[in-house]
Write a structure and sequence with these properties.
Blueprint lengths: L1 H22 L9 H9 L3 E2 L2 E2 L13 H10 L16 H5 L7 E4 L5 E5 L2 E5 L34 E3 L10 H7 L6 E4 L3 H6 L7 E4 L4 E4 L2 E6 L19 E5 L4 E4 L8 H9 L4 E5 L14 H10 L4 E5 L13 H13 L2 E2 L7 E3 L15
Parallel strand pairs: 5-6, 6-7, 7-8, 12-13, 13-14, 14-15
Antiparallel strand pairs: 1-2, 3-4, 3-16, 4-5, 9-10, 10-11, 11-12
């Protein structure tokens, strides 16, 4: 009888899991039809799975038991109180002069870029938890956003680096899709957007080194060293990328998620120098050294792409690794100083204005 009860419980759990995986819209959709045919023509994939330029092990030397234990027990992985946020208004965004390039960090890798009078949002993950369900992830470090998602004004474009939950958020896309003119995404990611109600004609998918232009802004999808996937069986089925954003007076690089590799130097030689590099710095570990950069590598990547200024991203919002939440900022700040690389470390919502304002306070030291 006991075995029967246990078997029934396991069966129910498996059935509930199946229903959740199959019917929850948060998981998105798989590419099909013309989208799948284009993926199959890409030289950056093999047998339907995308690959990195260099051989890359996603798991690395992962010890799952040790990692799970340390994730919940070791170190100050979250701040002891809500971290500071600079509040902004939609009117401030609307009033930005066309001659100014302004970048506002919304935490993690979410960035609002105002360039040549256009508003571009990169990886607008503005939800509370980077997971398909609130029970499956760690809550955001800040209690409030610089600007409520409902108050964000009309956007000219949204750029997505890849389909992981901390970059592509179902709830955020649902709220932003009708106030966004265009979406630019790596190959395959458009299938998720379409399943969430984004009109196909608004979506442009790009392979590595492919470019697109709108209203004088040039975009290039450039390589990154990472992986993709939102479910159990879809790893590597959609592409991941970094981005080049070039306007009339400013040239911007965004690394997306990436381990260190030679692609940074290639990008710098092809499209640099850059006025600013928005560089991944966080969620790293020695167990997975090929898919996320250590802070010292973040600085070297900035040098490789030939950037004048670096803004470290992919930190300061969520617990996704084993390091303390301040470790990325402490280490990258030190490494940048030693390498004589100019760095800007705004609090969330504090604007960086190229040529005018690049905040450099060590604000995180007050929130251990």
């Amino acid at each position: 009888m006991i075995l029967g009860i246990i078997s029934s419980i396991i069966g129910i759990l498996l059935f509930v899991t199946f229903l959740f995986l199959y019917f929850s819209p948060q998981f998105g959709a798989a590419p099909k039809g013309d989208d799948l045919e284009r993926i199959n023509r890409s030289k950056n994939q093999l047998d339907g799975k995308f690959k990195n330029l260099s051989e890359t092990s996603v798991e690395g030397d992962m010890n799952y038991t040790k990692t799970l234990k340390e994730y919940f027990t070791k170190g100050n992985k979250i701040p002891d109180k809500s971290i500071p946020v600079n509040k902004i208004t939609s009117e401030e965004i609307q009033a930005t002069a066309d001659t100014i390039t302004k970048i506002t960090w919304f935490g993690h890798s979410a960035l609002l870029i105002e360039i040549d009078g256009k508003k571009i949002f990169l990886d607008p993950m503005l939800g509370d938890v980077p997971a398909p369900h609130p029970w499956l992830g760690s809550k955001r470090f800040n209690d409030t956003l610089p600007l409520a998602i409902e108050a964000i004004p009309q956007l000219d474009a949204i750029l997505i680096s890849h389909d992981h939950y901390d970059h592509l958020d179902y709830g955020s896309i649902k709220k932003l899709k009708d106030k966004t003119a265009r979406f630019y995404v790596p190959l395959g990611v458009g299938a998720h957007l379409k399943s969430w109600g984004v009109a196909p004609e608004k979506i442009t998918e790009l392979d590595w080194w492919e470019s697109a232009s709108f209203d004088g802004i040039n975009l290039v999808a450039t390589p990154a060293r990472h992986f993709s996937g939102r479910g159990i069986l879809d790893r590597m089925r959609t592409q991941w990328s970094s981005w080049v954003i070039k306007g009339n007076g400013s040239n911007i690089f965004c690394s997306g998620d990436s381990g260190y590799d030679t692609h940074f130097k290639d990008i710098g030689e092809k499209y640099g120098p850059f006025d600013i590099a928005l560089m991944e710095c966080g969620q790293y570990d020695t167990q997975w050294p090929l898919i996320h950069m250590m802070p010292e590598e973040t600085v070297q990547a900035t040098i490789d792409v030939q950037a004048t200024l670096m803004l470290p991203i992919h930190w300061g919002a969520f617990k996704l690794a084993l390091h303390s939440w301040t470790d990325p900022a402490d280490r990258v700040y030190k490494a940048a100083s030693q390498a004589n690389i100019k760095i800007t470390t705004p609090i969330i919502g504090e604007p960086v204005i190229l040529g005018e304002a690049s905040p450099t306070s060590n604000w995180w030291e007050q929130y251990h």
